[in-house]
Task: structure prediction
Amino acid sequence: MRVDIVTIFPEFFGVLDVSLLGRARQSGLIDVRVHDLREFAHDRHRTVDDSPYGGGAGMVMKPEPWGEALDGIVGESSTLVVPSPAGAPFTQATARELAAREHLVFACGRYEGIDQRVIDHYADRIEVRELSLGDYVLNGGEVAAMAMIEAVGRLVPGVIGNPASLDEESHESGLLEYPSYTKPALWRGRAVPPVLLSGNHGAVAEWRRAQQIERTGRVRPDLIGGE
Ligand code: ADE
Result:
């Protein structure tokens, strides 16, 4: 998979060199390139923002630098991802969909967002997804893009050594994950649930399923048709 990121803060993405995704980059499973939007602004101050038409607070990112940057990156088979608190929710299902794409381009906006014509222009040509990480506002798309790249990248075949470990995670089954325990069997007076030491695989599976249902109902009733 190829991933391009356009941002005014390229240094934000240094963390992609570490951990699992760093290995995936080194092994060539995911080819990530970061581009500085300011290189596509040609005035003396390399201006990328301006005041909003119609008035209001904050600044809007100008369309010209975005157009020039993206024209050099996107192709017919690219998907343009625009992180935005006004986007559709980014979920595990979205991550699965994006993991099947060959080329993702992340456009990280700052300030009050990117001039809407940029999104509309590319939406006429390629797949464009405006996606929100959650119902809260970040200072820009960088942290959201990073979270999305991690969620998508770990689903790319080969990135996670044991793909079975992906199946039992929170949100894959529509339920939250069951609680996990490891040695020692007794820690600070707290015992591991005895069923997990029983060696009875059927009983373990049943207990885990019951835990998933209980936890989901308590913490995320919305996932199972509750409030
Ligand atoms: N940019 C600012 N806030 C955001 C959010 N909640 N999700 C995605 N991108 C954002």
Q: What stands out?
A: The helical segments are 19-26, 63-71, 92-99, 116-123, 141-153, 164-167, 201-219. The longest strand covers residues 78-89. The CA atoms of residues 212 and 218 lie 10 Å apart.
